[in-house]
Amino acid sequence: MKLTQDLSEKKQDFPSQQKSSRKLKVAFYVYPTAFQSPGGGEIQLLKTKQYLENEGVEVKLFDQWTDRLESFDVFHLFGAAKECVKMVETAKILGVKTVLSTICWYSWKSAWWTYPSFKGRLISMARQFAKSFFQCPTFRFLSKKEF
């Protein structure tokens, strides 16, 4: 009985349990050219926005020209593109909580040209090979039957 009382008291301490009249404000951010050729990552971003808004969260696609990071509670980055690193660092310096939705879209061409060193390129190509191999239907079939 004591344990149950302790747990119920702890539960009240969580911020998610407290009712607040202010909506959580979330800024969504993605690499600059994302919506020029939309695909799976952009769909993930828009659907996440839709479902969060259905839950009462205020979500805005961050505009670096007009929006201020400190006016948001959370800065949510979609994909880990190097063009976005400085914005994430700035959000963290300003004390804005940051979230990352990992999205990987490597192709053979990008696997080769992303890294300047030959060693980096070989490692990147090995990762791309592993990704391609493990996603192929034959491997999935074999892995269910034989492993």
The side-by-side strand order for the widest beta sheet comes to 2-1-3-4
Distance between the termini: 46 Å
Structural class call reads alpha/beta
Radius of gyration: 21 Å
When the domains are counted, the total is 2
- In round numbers, the mean pLDDT is 76
Top-tier CATH class of the largest domain: Alpha Beta
- What is the element string, with H for helices and E for strands? HEHEEHEHHH
Major β-sheet annotation: 4 strands, parallel
The shape is elongated
Helix content: 40-55%
CATH topology of the largest domain: Rossmann fold
**Strand segment tally:** 4
- Give unreliable regions as ranges: 10-17, 136-147
Number of helices: 6
Beta-strand content bin: 5-15%
What is the CATH-assigned architecture of the largest domain? 3-Layer(aba) Sandwich
What does this structure look like?
- The chain folds into 2 domains: 2-101, 3-Layer(aba) Sandwich (Rossmann fold); 108-146.
- Helix content is 46%, strand content 14%.
- The protein contains 6 helices and 4 strands, in the order αβαββαβααα.
- A 4-stranded parallel β-sheet has the order 2-1-3-4, sandwiched between helices.
- Mean pLDDT is 76; it is low at 10-17 and 136-147.
